[in-house]
Amino acid sequence: MRHNKKFNHLGRTASHRAAMLSNMAVSLIMHKRITTTVPKAKALKKYVEPLITKSKQDTTNSRRVCFSYLQDKYAVTELFKVISEKVADRPGGYTRIIKTGFRANDNAPMCFIELVDFDENMAKTAKKAKRTRRSSKKATAEAPVAEAAVEATEIAAE
Known about the structure:
By secondary structure, the protein is an alpha+beta fold. The protein has six helices and three strands, in the order H-E-H-H-H-E-E-H-H.
């Protein structure tokens, strides 16, 4: 019977799937963002989020457990030193999947998967544009005048 066996096998054997997810998790930890297909990203999210939660408590046992999944000592060091400090106050949801469209040759749905606290573009607050009710004719008319004044001072300086 096939009860409760609903996770995506990704068209691979169990050993190939485990190796692929381990390699993808190491790449995500080291580079903070990777591009992959949507099904692989969803499988990777389920694989790496428990490891990040485990890294919040820096014990010998948790390091060994994470190493057994990742098989890369540099990735484990990065996970426990850098990533666990950034996500210490976050209760979960350490990764974000952003869909980017479809791959050109086989039309597979592609996406970014990234660590949430490491995205510099999203972390910065967007600056609100200062809006005025005045017409923009005055600003465009002043721009050539200011430009001509700058050129005149440069010529005079020579």
